[in-house]
Design brief:
236 residues; alpha+beta
Length: 236
């Protein structure tokens, strides 16, 4: 089979296999490195820093083309005792990325007998994405270490940017509008949870591929706590 022939399934009118693979959504629209046009489903994930910790939030819908494949997708995953990742993109690739990160973190900390910094974890994530072993995935990494609270926006091609707040997924333009207007570096973790929930709610009202409730994580020196809400309103 030549390299330009893409896998299809079915008979008669053949269907692009990528169109029915469950997705956590494509990266935010635009010329992001590694962007691919065949991933058009969406999601909304956000990350915010505060003085005392980090808040991550995401909707819970996974889609396969125009089908809602799951209403209970976990898009915030703990990868370290004080860090978690939000994921948008191909489901199997995202799961593989998380497994690789967890294994590499354990190996690093066993060899060095010391914790991995958030900067090192962000660079590790970038290296794995640049390796090309994962279909398009765009994580937002958040966590705390000895240097404070950190949120990193990591592009599908491996670019790394540390931000006060970050978004990913097709619903990100709507979520970003809320964060631009309401984010305050001096807010508490509790206040950040409400703003993160509002940001995801705004996206679900306009982005048809985002919805079905909310996952929200708080990350502090005490560790990672992830809660789910069937209805976003219960988190406001």
């Amino acid at each position: 089979m030549s390299d330009d022939v893409r896998p299809t399934i079915g008979t008669g009118t053949e269907i692009d296999a990528s169109a029915v693979t469950p997705e956590f959504g494509s990266p935010s629209q635009g010329g992001v490195d590694g962007d691919r046009k065949d991933l058009e489903t969406g999601t909304t994930t956000v990350g915010l820093t505060t003085e005392n910790g980090v808040v991550l939030a995401a909707d819970r819908r996974a889609s396969a083309g125009n089908l809602v494949a799951s209403k209970n997708a976990d898009k915030i995953i703990e990868v370290h005792s004080s860090a978690a990742l939000t994921i948008s993109g191909n489901v199997s690739a995202a799961q593989s990325l998380v497994n690789s990160l967890r294994a590499e973190v354990r190996l690093y900390e066993t060899r060095r007998d010391a914790g991995m910094s958030l900067e090192a974890l962000a660079n590790l994530t970038s290296t794995l994405l640049r390796s090309g072993g994962f279909r398009i995935v765009q994580p937002v990494l958040g966590g705390v270490d000895d240097d404070g609270s950190h949120v990193y926006s990591i592009g599908p091609g491996g670019s790394v940017m540390e931000e006060a707040y970050a978004v990913s997924g097709s619903g990100s333009p709507f979520a970003l509008g809320v964060l631009e207007g309401e984010y305050d570096a001096g807010m508490s973790v509790d206040e950040a949870e409400i703003i993160a929930a509002r940001a995801v709610q705004s996206a679900t009202e306009r982005d048809t591929a985002s919805g079905n409730g909310l996952s929200i994580a708080t990350i502090t020196g005490d560790g990672v706590a992830i809660d789910t809400h069937e209805h976003i309103e219960s988190a406001l």
